[in-house]
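Q: What residues go here?
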């Protein structure tokens, strides 16, 4: 299925901004993106799509089920393609990089806890915030005078 068909299936017209933004998520190197990240890519590509349009399209894509939105500790909404498979997130507090993971034991334990408390989980979101322990982390911003060694 091509992007035009994918948009039509959600009831959205295949406008140039929508097609371009969907393409950024599909072929971009970065899986989790804020509206500003998307806008930056558009600027690099010399596109004339404005930031307000980016926000509007991301909201439409979320409502249509094309994208999932998460609000990590940064307070900014982060979007990713909705592939229909549940996963949780590990968020680096040093650089903001987001890694996805799925752990069957964690999923089972969450349901066990909910059952014991008299709940049936309808949906959940797990985000683990951590500091990178890789000394050669390629995503860590170069901050002069900052010591990353643990004592």
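A:
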């Amino acid at each position: 299925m091509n992007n035009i068909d994918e948009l039509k299936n959600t009831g959205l017209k295949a406008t140039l901004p929508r097609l371009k933004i969907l393409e950024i998520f599909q072929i971009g190197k970065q899986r989790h993106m804020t509206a500003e990240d998307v806008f930056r890519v558009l600027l690099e590509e010399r596109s004339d799509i404005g930031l307000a349009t980016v926000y509007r399209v991301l909201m439409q894509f979320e409502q249509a089920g094309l994208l999932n939105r998460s609000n990590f500790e940064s307070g900014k909404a982060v979007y990713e393609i909705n592939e229909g498979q549940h996963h949780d997130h590990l968020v680096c507090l040093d650089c903001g990089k987001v890694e996805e993971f799925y752990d069957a034991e964690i999923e089972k334990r969450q349901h066990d806890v909910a059952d014991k408390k008299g709940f049936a989980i309808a949906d959940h979101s797990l985000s683990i915030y951590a500091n990178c322990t890789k000394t050669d982390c390629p995503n860590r911003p170069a901050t002069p005078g900052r010591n990353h060694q643990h004592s």
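A: Context that may help when evaluating the design: The chain has a mean pLDDT of 83. Helices lie at 3-10, 16-27, 35-44, 51-64, 104-116.
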